[in-house]
Amino acid sequence: MTSPIFLQDLPIEQLEKLSKNDIQKISNAETLYWNNKPHIIYYVAVHGAKTQNNGLVNVSSTNTKIKGLSIARVGDEVIYADGTTSKIISGAGTACIVDGSPVALVGSRLDNGDEIIESPNTTIAIRIYKDQPLPQNFLSHD
């Protein structure tokens, strides 16, 4: 099987010879390739995200938002119905940093062993391809 060739890899001379229709066809093929390549999607956690033990993410900073919901980061707290709290200890690592801290993801761990399992955000995510190495400190909580 040959490796796919992407528009970004073509020399400018070759790109200039392509018609708009050719470029659109190649672009559509690239999209099909990336959408079907084995991957896992990790959604960014936001204020109100839920944990396995029924906690809710309580974001400390309201500077950065997705559709009006503040983005959760490593170090933010989760609050439980009994009033106890726990801190988010893992996130996107170097893949996505906001205001100096990695963003929290569905799959992020808390210092009490709990895990974020659901987020109101379903638009912004990190796609990790199975044949690629994980970004540094990605969901690492050691």
Automatic annotation (TrEMBL):
InterPro entries attached to this UniProt entry: PAAR_motif
Pfam short name (any one): PAAR_motif
Top-level division of the source organism's lineage: Bacteria
Entry protein name: PAAR domain-containing protein
Lineage: Bacteria, Pseudomonadati, Pseudomonadota, Gammaproteobacteria, Moraxellales
